[in-house]
Amino acid sequence: MSDDSLFHKLLILRLPRVGPVKYAELMAQFKSPAAVVEFLNPDVRHIDMVRREMDAAAKLNIQYLSDDSGQYPQNLKEIKAHPPVLSVRGRIDALQKPAVAIVGTRHATGAGLRFTSDLAYAFAEHGYAVVSGMAMGTDTAAHMGALASGRDATTIAVLAGGADVIWPLENERLYAQILECGCVVSEMPVGAAPSASLFAQRNRWIAGLSEKLILGEADAKSGSVITANFMLEMNRPVYAIPSHPSDARGAGPNRLIRDGLAILCTGADDFFGEKDGAEKRIGPPQKWENTLLDKLGNIPMPESVLAELVKKEVGEIKRELVMLELSGVVKKQDGGYVKI
Questions:
Q1: Has residue 293 been placed in a domain?
Q2: How far is C-alpha 77 from the chain's CA centre?
Q3: Cα–Cα–Cα angle for 173, 178, 181, nearest 5°?
Q4: Which pTM does this prediction carry?
Q5: Nearest-angstrom CA–CA distance, 16 and 14
Q6: Window from 127-136, 191-200, 252-261, 301-310 with minimum mean pLDDT
Q7: Of 132, 183, 184, 289, which one has the greatest count of Cβ atoms within 10 A?
Q8: Which CATH number covers residue 328?
Q9: Residue 76 placed within a domain
Q10: 304 domain-assigned
Q11: Tell me, what's the pLDDT at 281?
Q12: Domain housing 50
């Protein structure tokens, strides 16, 4: 894709009320981005804004990927009204791997987080890119589980804001790790802040990138269930992890299973015919695990205090605490972490 072609496409897409559907209509009518731009005749301020965005992207090593590129993910290209241009930061080759979406509530149980993490680990071990939305809870467990698989780990975060905008802020370290072993993807301009109206579209692209989707704990009307519904609209398989009927977080997956819309998911064996995940991850405690656990007790300890005790930065211990939480040996409470 030439710089001029990209520039013309962004000039169109950055206009108010122009999304994938309107863009497709304009292209069908005028046949080329240059012809559309000539017709729309954007003003100087708009042209300068797009140029500034492209300059900022270049400085941040954010690449633009057009749907006429061979590197554009085929799963996403196959769906109607896909994003004409993606912003990608990190390893762009991650988009060529087979992909599985793993989504669920931000308020998952400890057991749900561990189950999700182990599933993601198994998929990463088998060469999949694990796709999620980098939210707290289930999304974080999915990304972290994939990253834990080691050298060939690949995970993809689809963001509602710009590819350079970390949200939530608590996942700053996770964002950096994803860039090393995968990529973050967005259709929004560089620097764009996420807003409530953008998350539904983000969920659609999570589904669009993936060949299958696994739904964890989720309320019946949650964004994760919406993501699963997008997957069903695309005629792609949805798997659901059952939960206890008395827990509202089980309503989403349980109803999809009951209605015959989702396939029951009981673990990695359902996909690979062998035991994966927990058995491979259990072993002698890492040195950092012993150090952190030695400092924790029954009274919640804030991250800042814990970091001071182990002589590390807060950002350094966040990932370690998440892994310990996924392993079921610590729990986050108001005011900090406790040992279970």
A1: yes
A2: 18
A3: 130
A4: 0.83
A5: 6
A6: 301-310
A7: 132
A8: 1.10.10.10
A9: no
A10: yes
A11: 41
A12: 1-59
- Residue 327 is predicted with a pLDDT of 67
* 258 contact partners, CB below 8 Å, separation of at least 6: none
Q: What is the Cα–Cα distance from 308 to 228, expressed in whole angstroms? A: 42
User: 240 and 154 in one domain?
Assistant: yes
Distance CA 242, CA 119 (A): 14
Q: Flag the least confident range among 29-33, 229-233, 324-328.
A: 324-328
Q: Please give the structure tokens belonging to residue 71.
A: 């590197």
User: What total of structural domains would you count in the chain?
Assistant: 3
Average pLDDT, rounded, for the chain: 90
Q: Is the pLDDT of residue 276 over 70?
A: no
